[in-house]
Amino acid sequence: MVESVVVLGDRKKRISAFLLKNALYLVMFLLLSIIVIVQPSFLSFQNFYFIVTQSSSRIILALGIASIIVLGYTDLSLGRSVGMAAIVASSLLQAVNYSQRVFPDLPRLPIFVPIFAVMILCSIFMVAQALVVSKLKVAPFIASLGFQLIIYGLQSIYIDRLNDSSPIGGLDPAFSNFAQGAIEFSSFRIPYIIIYALVASLIIWFLWNKTKLGRNMYAIGGNIEAATVSGVNVVANILAIYVIAGMMYGFGGALEGARTGSVTNMLGQGYELDAIAACVVGGVSMRGGVGTVPGVVTGVLLFQIINYGLVYIGVNPYVQFIVKGMIIVLAVAIDSQKYVKRR
């Protein structure tokens, strides 16, 4: 009798642990099942191809913010950084024969020059934010909220003064092809943007798993006091992580500008929430110290599948916000329960 009670208790613990570990994936699978039942044609290679392509720039952005989340911090400035990068890069890479160029006398630039410039620009803002967080001890949420407003204000002045707040279009064909082009095979094409996402994933995986910076990142996120006592230069490592995130934002923003073809001041709005949600869905803990690159990539893909699926079956846009909000709350709630279990 006692053994039966013990076995039953162990079984309940295993079931409870399984549900806690996989609850979010079960919910996502349920949503996907509903989408497929409503519209079976959703399960097609064409849709999957489209989703992966559309997810590629989001993967790059999510990998940038994931490093900050693993530190135990957060960043609300991602979306505005993306918008700023897209606006600046697009304004410098318009076709020379376009009649409404922002800089009419600017010679044609190699596309890598403005792209690298916006990567540096975003990194500068991220360094400033990292110093505010690490040196002035301002809460990351508040610091990033402040920089979100600062960046949006600066990019608004930029596009208002130089282009009268009009969309920036007429992009150089080479810049558009940088994001929209593909390697062509006989009956198949691999978009460049998917290759960029794959390369970015491999680079971040290497940094996280094979470098001292990666080990220090996990150590700081796991226990910043213990990391400090162990001799980790916390400020230097936080600065390095923020710089990497800024470069990812800049590159992802340039890609978004080239991909959309016409950049407005609203580009990037809300991207930070989708990126954070995708990270949490992919197993990156908001408490810090936990996360993997495959998890981030999986989280982005799952989130995009649900997003596109809801659009595909014609769900009201306002209802889509509700569903996304519920997924975010559920993801964070499950993460909190996992943290309690670990403690």
Quick overview:
The protein has 343 residues and is an all-alpha fold. The chain is built from 13 helices and 2 strands.
Can you tell me about this structure?
With 343 residues, the chain is mainly α. The chain has a single domain, classed as ABC transporter involved in vitamin B12 uptake, BtuC (Orthogonal Bundle), CATH 1.10.3470. It has 13 helices and 2 strands; from the N terminus they run ααααααββααααααα. Strands 1-2 form a two-stranded antiparallel sheet. It is globular. The mean pLDDT is 89.
Termini distance? Answer: 32 Å
Radius of gyration: 22 Å
Mean pLDDT level: 89
User: How many beta strands in the DSSP annotation?
Assistant: 2
Order of strands across the main sheet: 1-2
Q: What CATH first level would be assigned?
A: Mainly Alpha
CATH architectural arrangement: Orthogonal Bundle
Largest sheet: 2 strands, antiparallel
Structural category is: mainly alpha
Q: Find the CATH topology.
A: ABC transporter involved in vitamin B12 uptake, BtuC
Number of helices: 13
Low-pLDDT runs: none
Helix content estimate? over 70%
User: Which overall shape is indicated by the principal axes computed on the Cα atoms?
Assistant: globular
